[in-house]
């Protein structure tokens, strides 16, 4: 608290009240590190406004006193984008009190929610009126809509519904000077100039603070079929998704690729998970088809597609879930990978994307380079094949020293990012840049793109007070 002027503190309290301030060092702790304890900072104050108007008033005061702000939602990110720096001079602005569902418009197929709303609560509000909000993440029980927007979250249903850019029609944003831009329009067509909402989606709080959004709703899903499929290679996964897409069209909702190393970790560390097959296989995919019709012939379609793939040698084994419990068990295998890897000691996590057609060559090339340079590392590759997004993680060799492995982080990252760039890919598919990839972006993004980004940042935030040290 001593880093802040007394007048500022009094004026902040006049805006948000004592309940909207966290000053005690012990209570602050959960706001100062991410859920993995990978990033940690210090803050002079945590402010928890309860309305857009309070957010705007806090931002105006920070602008007046030249105090940097770090917006924060559920704090479930993986790149440290919502964590303050180590100076102890920044203010964390938490949106977790702004949880309102402002409107559900079933005729327009939209839902308007505040930025602090938990993703699962938005899903449930849609379900209550017979609709679907399709964004689905492992952290959906704790991540917030504001954070999902700030990082342009993707998740497991991108194949059919797209990421947050595709799911958003309008935004309400507090700008760095405290003005409120009310872009909460539920329009699917608005060709009146620049589409400003896309500046803020994916900007990680560096251009303004998203306080509310109009999101798209879809008809409720009434039929689902899930299969666990064994493959001889990553190339087979690309072949298989082509077969299933040609047959099933947009009924294909999920297509998740997992290496055997990923599955081994889950079987070792996640309770109640068991291998669906008696034999091991190099690769697996989890396929989900869904339909709005209650009796859609999804089993028959998926069986037909897998049968064709078996005949062509693309698939080596497959099992279709026959109950909701089996569906949950198969998804637990996929969703347990990140947690399971944490039990194996330090791991270096990379969220990259390449063209779908390049996935097999990327994996083969990068695996070989890493194993040549860092013998014994364990590569945990999994992700959303249909949109080219791989979570390409590296665990330390068995029995190796943690500190020595962590010291190789930059060298390992260099190998992965060089390969990603070589395949015309991106070093961040859905996690953002935050503080983790800011330096790498300088090297791997086009200089002109970075210059344009800096020009936009300077125009909207000339003082550089919005989440400094992130993205740029």
UniProtKB/TrEMBL annotation:
Name of a matching Pfam family: FAD-oxidase_C
Protein's GO biological process: respiratory electron transport chain
Names of required cofactors: FAD
Entry annotated with the keyword Aminoacyl-tRNA synthetase: no
Keyword set includes Flavoprotein: yes
Record-annotated FAD-binding PCMH-type domain positions: 39-220
Gene Ontology terms, MF aspect: catalytic activity; FAD binding
Cited InterPro entries: FAD-bd_oxidored_4_C (IPR004113), FAD-bd_PCMH (IPR016166), FAD-bd_PCMH-like_sf (IPR036318), FAD-bd_PCMH_sub1 (IPR016167), FAD-bd_PCMH_sub2 (IPR016169), FAD-linked_Oxase-like_C (IPR016164), FAD-oxidored/transferase_4 (IPR051264), Oxid_FAD_bind_N (IPR006094)
Alphabetized UniProt keyword annotations: FAD, Flavoprotein
Family per similarity comment: Belongs to the FAD-binding oxidoreductase/transferase type 4 family.
Name this protein carries in UniProt: FAD-binding oxidoreductase
Species annotation: Stutzerimonas zhaodongensis
Lineage: Bacteria, Pseudomonadati, Pseudomonadota, Gammaproteobacteria, Pseudomonadales
């Amino acid at each position: 608290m001593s880093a802040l002027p007394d007048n500022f503190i009094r004026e902040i309290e006049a805006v948000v009240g004592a309940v909207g301030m966290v000053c005690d060092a012990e209570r602050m702790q959960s706001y100062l590190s991410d859920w993995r304890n990978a990033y940690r900072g210090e803050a002079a104050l945590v402010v928890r406004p309860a309305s857009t108007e309070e957010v705007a008033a806090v931002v105006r005061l920070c602008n007046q006193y030249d105090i940097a702000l770090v917006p924060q939602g559920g704090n479930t990110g993986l790149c440290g984008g919502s964590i303050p720096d180590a100076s102890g001079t920044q203010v964390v602005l938490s949106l977790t009190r702004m949880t309102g569902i402002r409107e559900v418009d079933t005729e327009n197929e939209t839902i308007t929610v505040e930025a602090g709303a938990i993703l699962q609560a938005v899903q449930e509000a849609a379900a209550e009126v017979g609709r679907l909000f399709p964004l689905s993440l492992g952290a959906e029980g704790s991540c917030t809509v504001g954070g999902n927007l700030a990082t342009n979250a993707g998740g497991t249903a991108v194949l059919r519904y797209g990421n947050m850019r595709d799911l958003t029609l309008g935004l309400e944003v507090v700008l760095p000077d405290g003005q409120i831009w009310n872009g909460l329009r539920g329009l699917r067509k608005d060709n009146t100039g620049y589409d400003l909402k896309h500046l803020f989606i994916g900007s990680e709080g560096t251009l303004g603070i998203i306080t509310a959004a109009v999101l798209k709703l879809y008809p409720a899903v009434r039929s689902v079929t899930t299969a666990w499929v064994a493959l001889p290679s990553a190339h087979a996964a690309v072949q298989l998704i082509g077969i299933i897409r040609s047959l099933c069209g947009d009924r294909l909702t999920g297509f998740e690729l997992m290496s055997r190393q990923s599955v081994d970790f889950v079987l070792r560390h996640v309770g109640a998970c068991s291998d669906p097959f008696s034999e091991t296989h190099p690769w697996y995919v989890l396929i989900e088809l869904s339909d709005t019709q209650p009796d859609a012939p999804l089993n028959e379609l998926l069986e037909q597609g897998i049968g064709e793939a078996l005949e062509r040698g693309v698939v080596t084994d497959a099992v279709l879930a026959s109950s909701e419990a089996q569906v949950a068990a198969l998804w637990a295998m996929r969703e347990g990978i990140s947690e399971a890897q944490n039990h194996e000691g330090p791991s270096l996590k990379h969220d990259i994307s390449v063209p779908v057609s390049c996935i097999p060559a990327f994996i083969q090339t990068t695996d070989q380079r890493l194993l040549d340079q860092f013998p014994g590392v364990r590569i945990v590759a999994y992700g959303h094949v249909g949109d080219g997004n791989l979570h390409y993680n590296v665990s330390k060799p068995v029995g190796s020293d943690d500190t020595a492995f962590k010291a190789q982080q930059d060298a390992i990252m260099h190998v992965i990012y060089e390969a990603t760039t070589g395949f015309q890919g991106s070093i961040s598919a859905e996690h953002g840049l935050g503080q983790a990839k800011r330096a790498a972006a300088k090297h791997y993004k086009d200089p002109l793109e970075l210059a344009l980004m800096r020009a936009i940042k300077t125009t909207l935030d000339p003082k550089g007070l919005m989440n400094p040290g992130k993205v740029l």
